[in-house]
Amino acid sequence: MIKVVRGMRDLFGAEIATWHRLEDIFRSLPARFGYQEFRTPIVESADLFRRGVGEETDIVGKEMYTFEDRGGDSLTLRPEMTAPIVRAAIEHTLLRHQPTTRLWYYGPLFRYERPQKGRYRQFHQFGAELLGSPHPEADAEIIMLAAETIREVGLQNITLQINTLGISEERSAYRAALVSYLEDHVHDLSEDSKRRLQHNPLRVLDSKDEGDRRIVVNAPVLFNYLEAASKQHFETVLAILSSAGISFTIEHRLVRGLDYYSHTVFEFVSNDLGAQNTVCGGGRYDPLFALLGGGDVPAVGFSFGVERLVLLMEELASKGSQGSEDLYICAINEEARLPAQLLALRLRRAGFVVHVDVQRRSMKAQMKEADKIGVRATLVLGEEELRDQTVTIKDMVGGQQTSVPLSQLESHLHQALKA
Ligand code: HAM
Fold first, then answer.
1. Mutation test of ligand 1: which of 125, 269, 280, 286 has the most ligand atoms closer than 8 Å to its C-beta?
2. How far is the CA of 302 from the centre of ligand 1 (A)?
3. 242-252 b/e with 16+ CB inside 10 Å = b?
4. Which residue out of 143, 303, 310, 312 has the highest number of ligand 1 atoms within 8 Å of its CB and is therefore the one to mutate?
5. Which entry of 57, 201, 287, 418 is 20 to 30 Å from 363 by CA?
6. Ligand 1 pocket, 266 CB below 6 A?
7. How does pLDDT run across 141-182, given as a tens digit for each residue?
8. In this predicted model, what pLDDT tens digit does every residue of 247-284 receive, in sequence order?
């Protein structure tokens, strides 16, 4: 048997309704903040991520699906969306037309990671990018949009962790101090962290290894190496968040796994998800446009992992489920089959969700199916109903039966379903 590729998932059944509810939020919420949707291809040139995300990151080093196409070009299934958005903004000179450009996106991404709950090889992100402002108000707006997303989805138990990485010159001075400290403890570091110490020492700070964590607790703190301007930027972001009633914890060891960040970085972390508990990650990435040949354009953004939102929503839903408004049309005899199918079409045109039998099943089997689907009401058509131009409505919640003239059916159903 050929099976779905490891780390990838088929989406179907009840879970689809959860995705639809999220997609409704993605389409309406960013629009209220003035963001427009942007769609890019799933495949990009491999160089985009090597240059944009950074050669030393896990994503580029070991997680990309990269292949040569028939023309010999090296292509990659996109592992993240920020570099493609910046590529597109440069290519279409978006900033020339709109010096502050607000974009959102939603779509599949690919990373060759070890699969586990909340971590897949094909996953989806919903994200937003605010291009063109160097000011803390932009960082705050992006964090507000992420926080509103969490509020609209209805999630609780989520913590915002926030930090600042300053600018590259400040990090160089800090890196030297950090490396010197870590070298004194090199024998006790995990193998991963020993490797990172060579290429990307700041990543040692957010190692999940217990031994590493004990060492890192006493490591020098980046914030103390920042100049006044960087500190001021961060403090203004925090002040705006506080005024907006958004609570946060400052997490000095939060560095994030991508190389393009400067100043603010943040993550929204759930207490209900197990190991893969970050539902949203983001930050300011002022260096990225220049890395991709787009000059000096400051920018900030975030991405949510949609599978993780779905997991959390399903937990919420299991605590209180919503009722269905579907209808089932049941044909009692052969003569009623065509009228039943035509009535289904009429009601679907009027906006109802209608199920009807196409297996020529008995009335009993149809009623059983209606029950299994969990419809709100079953509409019965038989000899009597056809003769009198009526339909018998069986309310599947209350159990009562009503005979309604066909001519008044839609208005009756609107009333009854609302009740
Ligand atoms: P990231 O932290 O790599 O950031 O990913 C953002 C979110 O995507 C994660 O917090 C997680 O919820 C989800 N995610 C990542 N990998 C997986 C996976 N293998 N399976 C399921 N979910 C996953 C970025 O991608 C940046 N582009 C965020 C950003 C936007 N920064 C600025 N603008």
1. 125
2. 8
3. eeeebebeebe
4. 303
5. 418
6. no
7. 999 999 999 999 999 899 999 999 999 999 999 999 999 999
8. 999 999 999 988 899 999 999 999 888 888 999 999 99
Residue 104, pLDDT > 80, answer yes
CA-based torsion, 193, 198, 202, 203: positive or negative:
negative
HEC string for the chain: CCCCCCCCCCCCCHHHHHHHHHHHHHHHHHHHCCCEECCCCCEEEHHHHHHHCCCCCHHHHHHCEEEECCCCCEEEECCCCHHHHHHHHHHCCHHHHCCCEEEEEEEEEECCCCCECCECCEEEEEEEEEECCCCHHHHHHHHHHHHHHHHHHCCCCEEEEEEECCCHHHHHHHHHHHHHHHHCCHHHCCHHHHHHHHHCHHHHHHCCCHHHHHHHCCCCCHHHHCCHHHHHHHHHHHHHHHHCCCCCEECCCCCCCCCCCCCEEEEEEECCCCCCCEEEEEEECCCHHHHCCCCCCCEEEEEEEHHHHHHHHHHHHCCCCCCCCCEEEEECCHHHHHHHHHHHHHHHHCCCCEEECCCCCCHHHHHHHHHHHCCCEEEEECHHHHHHCEEEEEECCCCCEEEEEHHHHHHHHHHHHHC
- Would you say the C-alpha torsion 395, 398, 402, 408 has a positive or negative sign? negative
Ligand 1 centroid from CA 58, angstroms: 12
- What the block records as the tokens of 113 is 């990671």
403 CB neighbour count, 10 Å cutoff: 12
Q: What separation in Å is there between the alpha carbon of 283 and the centre of ligand 1?
A: 11
Q: Ligand 1: which atom is nearest the Cα of residue 129?
A: 33
Taking all residues of the chain, what is their mean pLDDT, rounded to a whole number?
94
Specify the pLDDT at position 96. Answer: 94
End-to-end C-alpha distance for the chain, whole angstroms? 49
* 282-328 confidence digits (pLDDT tens): 999 999 999 999 999 999 999 999 999 999 998 887 665 456 789 99
Atom 13 of ligand 1, nearest CA residue = 305
Residue 337 CA, ligand 1 centroid: distance in Å: 51
